[in-house]
Write a structure and sequence with these properties.
By secondary structure, the chain is α/β, with parallel strands linked by helices. The protein is about 40% helix and about 10% strand. The protein has helices at about 30-40, 65-70, 85-95, 140-160, 165-180, 200-210, 215-220, 225-230, 240-245, 255-260, 265-275, 275-280, 285-300, 310-315, 340-350, 365-370, 375, 415-420, 420-425, 455-470, 490-495, 515-525, 525-540, 565-570, and strands at about 5, 15, 20, 45, 55-60, 80-85, 280-285, 305-310, 320, 325-330, 350-360, 385-390, 500-510, 545, 550, 555-560. Its cofactor is Mg(2+).
Length: about 575
């Protein structure tokens, strides 16, 4: 069978389509795979360029770049051959035939705007400060940012004296690329941009010219790097411990498990036992389900409480390695002890596996402390529970669990709705407690004990009495959690048991309402956005910003905020939606 194509601009009559893939910038295996797929789909191609070729497929981003590589090959380019992007070939392979060439598939010439052929028209559009720029999850330069963030990750895993600044340099450069309003086609386009150093320019130039960077590919194929990634994926394991495991000759998680008791840190023993569970990303659907469960229990404990999912989910990510939930109460001081009561409730539901509490240790002196450690450190002093919970597998399949809100409301159906969720819930009426455990389809939420009609007074009173008993007995000091004292063997046995739940990492944080919106900014992230906005506050405004508040160093006073928008106004910054804080 002969494949044909017709292009209205260059071809008056249909003729056989013969493809040639310009090998420059293709990784060897990918090139071989594409050629094999073309054979399977009966799409004609040649390994050498000659006059029969009708389509030249390339990874180059400009016509000039493609012609440069064709000149190197000393090949004569057929007069009417179309130079097209790899995306066109991918579409052809998907459809098992040669498709028409659309305008978006053509490799075009780059306009020469000045004597040096450098387009600097976009330079002023990107601020030197990441906190002033919008950075979304999807952008024009993912190929480059993925490479830079791999270099960042490698530097962080090396964990030597100079590696913190090295990793930060790669992250800053990546953040610039995420904010560009155009796709990078030449490193000369980056002239004038802060945070793009010579090392980064060399990496980007290699990717532009050859499709990959030797430095990046060496790391990507490094056995040490893969082992470090493998071991640091264990809950509780950092670079130092991972290196010690490599030094022992351990090659896999199985090797570490066989070694038996290797560390007194419970996080590591539980992290090894539930490695596969904790490595599997938490989905947005699970996050919504768990948020609804927490919201339901919190409304029983403290009806006016505010519950917000933070972290990557609030920034629009569809999955993450854990779920962070920030809680507060509009009456200052009323948030005290709600976390211990919540954990008691979750324990009664048999949802708590293992974790630890940290008390609120904040003092006003910490906010006014003019030290630099806050710029590097992302720790705060809130009351927290950090640990591992059971997520019923129904969290992965049930689209909706019971909401404590009005029956006309629905769970957030997208990441954007979730990011704005806390704004709409704060001022809404709460249904009576008799209704909170019944889902929309009359199934039970994980913490339900009874099924009842709303007019069944006796069962309603029983539920209220059980709730009262539960709250009185929910302090972590007076009640031990079910799995708290398991031996290492018992933890492994639990992980290997036939179960209808998945182990998930959970952080629950409680903030006083006066600090809540600063905590919301801090716990939403991203990590680099926080680092940059805090440095900006200090260097430009002479203010100290933390998750606890904003302190005017000159006046010696804290600046209150009643919304995230007000936090940004205090900082004289344009408000950025959580979706735009993914730098």
């Amino acid at each position: 069978m002969t494949a044909e194509y017709r292009d209205d601009k260059d071809n008056e009559f249909a003729k056989p389509a013969v493809l040639y893939i310009l090998p420059h910038k293709f990784q060897k295996k990918r090139l071989m795979d594409m050629k094999q797929s073309m054979l399977n789909k009966k799409i004609i191609f040649l390994n050498e360029l000659d006059s029969k070729v009708t389509h030249i497929v390339t990874e180059c981003l400009s016509y000039e770049q493609a012609m440069k590589f064709l000149d190197v090959n000393k090949a004569e380019v057929p007069k009417n051959a179309l130079i097209v992007s790899t995306s066109w070939l991918v579409e052809c392979l998907k459809n098992s035939k040669v498709l028409p060439v659309l305008e978006c598939h053509r490799i075009k010439k780059v306009e020469k705007k000045d004597a040096d052929h450098v387009d600097t028209s976009n330079v002023t559009e990107v601020s030197d400060w990441a906190c002033k720029r919008g950075a979304t999850l999807t952008h024009c330069n993912e190929k480059f940012t993925e490479a830079l963030e791999l270099l960042q990750n490698h530097a962080e895993l090396r964990n030597e004296a100079s590696d913190y600044s090295r990793a930060l340099a790669f992250r800053r450069a990546s953040c610039v690329l995420k904010s560009l309003p155009f796709a990078l086609t030449d490193v000369q386009q980056l002239i004038g941009y802060k945070d793009i150093g010579e090392h980064v320019r060399k990496v980007l130039a290699d990717i532009l010219d050859y499709g990959s960077s030797p430095e990046v590919e060496e790391i990507r194929n490094s056995e040490w790097f893969h082992k470090m990634k493998l071991f640091t994926n264990v809950f509780g394991v950092g670079p130092a411990i991972a290196k010690s495991w490599i030094d022992k000759g351990w090659q896999s998680i199985a090797d570490v498990r066989l070694a038996g008791s290797i560390n007194k840190d419970w996080r590591i023993s539980w992290g090894l036992a539930f490695y596969e569970d904790l490595l599997t990303p938490v989905t947005m659907q699970e996050a919504e389900a768990f948020e609804t469960l927490i919201r339901t229990e919190m409304k029983k404990i403290s009806p006016l409480s505010i519950v917000t999912v933070t972290g990557g989910f609030r920034r629009g990510k569809s999955n993450g390695h854990d779920i962070d939930i920030l809680m507060t109460h509009p009456d200052e001081g009323a948030e005290t002890n709600i976390l211990s009561k919540l954990m008691g409730a979750l324990n009664k539901c048999d949802l708590v596996l293992k974790g630890y509490f940290t008390q609120n240790t904040f003092s006003s002196e910490m906010l006014s402390d003019d030290s630099k450690k806050g710029l590097r450190s992302h720790f705060d002093h809130f009351e927290k529970w950090i640990g591992i919970c059971k997520f019923p597998k129904s969290f992965q399949t049930d689209r909706k669990l019971q909401s404590v809100r009005d029956s006309s409301e629905t769970l957030p159906e997208s990441a954007q709705q979730l990011s704005h969720y806390s704004r709409t819930i704060q001022h809404q009426d709460v249904l009576p407690s008799e209704h909170v455990n019944i889902s929309a389809d009359n199934t039970m939420s994980p913490c339900s004990k009874h099924t009842f009609k709303t007019d069944d007074k006796q069962k309603s009173l029983t539920l209220k009495r059980e709730r009262t008993e539960m709250l009185e007995d929910s302090s972590p000091k007076s009640k031990r959690f079910k799995y708290e004292d398991l031996s290492e063997k018992e933890v492994i046995s639990l992980a290997n048991s036939d179960r209808n739940w998945t182990a998930r990492r959970v952080d629950l944080i409680v903030s006083p309402y006066s600090q809540y919106y600063y905590a919301l900014v801090g716990w939403t992230g991203s990590k680099h956005f926080n680092r940059d906005i805090r440095l900006y506050a200090q260097k430009v405004l002479g203010l100290r910003l933390t998750s606890h508040g904003l302190f005017d160093m000159k006046k010696g006073e804290a600046l209150p905020a009643s919304s995230e928008e007000e936090v940004f106004r205090h900082l004289q910054l344009p408000y950025r939606d959580p979706m735009e804080r993914n730098c």
